[in-house]
Design goal:
- The protein has 232 residues and is of the alpha+beta class.
- The chain has a 4-stranded antiparallel β-sheet with strand order 1-2-6-3, sandwiched between helices.
């Protein structure tokens, strides 16, 4: 992979899209982060060094979700980790290529919590994905893409490369409520603002303590949310 150094935001965007095609990702968008970088768990000087966030997504295989009913499965847990590993490798390759072109780039792990009390990472992949036009925050508190629903994982790379950003989507879950009745924690409600974070985390912790999986994951609402095209 090569990227020609350019100060033209449109040319840089074109180059990135070419690189992304080579990496064979399922979702990609560019977010203007200047208004949200104050929320990042990073030193102030580092926050101010970056103006754009690259949101990269890989879809969860439908075949892996098929066996999920009311709890996560070992197969889903393994697939979840493999997707995270793949996304981390992609983010590293992309960031390295951007640096080789003379710009700064900072990749973040697809799954890493640094503030367990508030369940926060260095950056919110969901927020970057929203600003990059990949989807909206759904009733299940996950980023929802029109085609993939919640069936994808995300990773983020920050950069100072001049770019033309994407715009957030003006969409929501509308009349789809498939995630509500299946949630084992009863954490999902009609309004996204009423999502019960604590109930969700307690259920995830219960799954982990029971030895079903080795991480705080579920997958039940992910299976239920397959996109607007399949919401009827």
């Amino acid at each position: 992979m090569k990227l020609i150094s350019a100060s033209d935001p449109a040319e840089n965007r074109k180059g990135l899209l070419t690189l992304i095609a080579e990496l064979k990702v399922d979702l990609f968008g560019i977010a203007d982060i200047k208004e949200v970088r104050k929320e990042f768990f990073l030193p102030e000087a580092v926050k101010q060094s970056y103006s754009f966030g690259l949101a990269i997504g890989k879809k969860v295989l439908a075949s892996v979700l098929e066996e999920i009913e009311d709890k996560p499965t070992p197969l889903y847990f393994h697939h979840y980790r493999q997707l995270n590993n793949e996304l981390d490798r992609i983010a590293l390759r992309l960031a390295s290529t951007i640096e080789e072109a003379g710009f700064r780039a900072l990749p973040f792990p697809a799954s890493q919590i640094i503030d367990w009390k508030n369940q926060k990472a260095h950056v919110s992949h969901k927020k970057i994905g929203f600003l990059a036009g990949l989807g909206w925050l759904g009733r299940n508190n996950l980023l929802i893409n029109p085609k993939l629903g919640a069936r994808f994982r995300l990773v983020t790379v920050l950069t100072d490369m001049p770019l033309v950003p994407d715009e957030p989507l003006n969409l929501d879950c509308n009349g789809c409520f498939r995630c509500l009745p299946v949630c084992p924690a009863k954490a999902i409600h009609e309004s996204q603002a009423d999502f019960d974070h604590l109930a969700c985390f307690r259920q995830l912790d219960e799954f982990r303590r029971r030895g079903l999986v080795g991480q705080h994951i579920c997958g039940v609402c992910v299976k239920a949310c397959s996109g607007l095209e399949n919401s009827s």
